[in-house]
Specification:
By secondary structure, the protein is an alpha/beta fold. The chain contains seven helices and seven strands; from the N terminus they run αβαβαββαβαααββ.
Length: 206
């Protein structure tokens, strides 16, 4: 499902074939690779992350897949780029992990061209009322057990549950985006009955 959702994000972004793309909290570069897969070799794609070890994995995958993407260390709170540089700025499952999500949103808007697009893929607070018990049991027990068994990192999967519950979703998140004064035409798509959401907003520099 994650692979499908990232494909949907890129398609919905309406990124131009020769556009400049910035993927924040890129991690191992999965979303950056999807952008290049769909846009082709003319696109200029940069992936940033504050974690050196994650970027090492991204660069290794880049070499293996022969992708033309530039990866560099950067903090979403203070991006090392000029104003209005990119056509599209994206972030997948990273915004809820930063210290100040609103500041990160405004910083991503700063480096995006006026009329450009911000794309966010993120978990939400909880699914609809009828499905909530099933999602709770799934994430609380099944995901936790499988994740711990495969990786030995129980804390990471406990954190996933906690951070998802505390992060705003749907119209609440759109309201926060609009409140920054940088975005217009904010909308979202619900994925798998509210397990995750894709948010899309036009950047407006006054």
């Amino acid at each position: 499902m994650d692979t499908s959702w990232r494909k949907t994000l890129v398609q919905w972004s309406e990124a131009p074939k020769n556009g400049k793309i910035l993927d924040c909290a890129t991690g191992t570069g999965v979303l950056a690779f999807e952008f290049q897969k769909q846009l082709g070799p003319e696109a200029q794609i940069i992936g940033v992350d504050f974690c050196k070890e994650m970027l090492e994995q991204a660069r290794l995958a880049q070499t293996t897949q022969k992708k033309n993407i530039h990866f560099q260390i950067a903090d979403m709170h203070q991006l090392p780029f000029e104003n209005q540089t990119f056509d599209v700025c994206s972030c997948a499952y990273g915004l809820r992990n930063v210290e100040n999500p609103l500041k990160a949103l405004m910083e991503m808007a700063r480096v995006t061209k006026s009329g450009g697009t911000l794309m966010i893929l993120e978990t939400g607070d909880k699914p609809g009322f009828l499905l909530y018990p099933f999602f709770y049991l799934y994430f609380r027990y099944i995901v936790l057990w499988i994740g711990t068994w495969l990786t030995g990192q129980k804390f990471a999967y406990e954190y996933l549950q906690q951070s998802s519950r505390n992060f705003p979703a749907r119209k609440d998140f759109l309201t926060q985006m609009k409140g920054t004064g940088y975005f217009s035409k904010c909308e979202y798509k619900s994925l798998f009955f509210g397990a995750s959401f894709i948010y899309k907003a036009r950047v407006s520099h006054k």
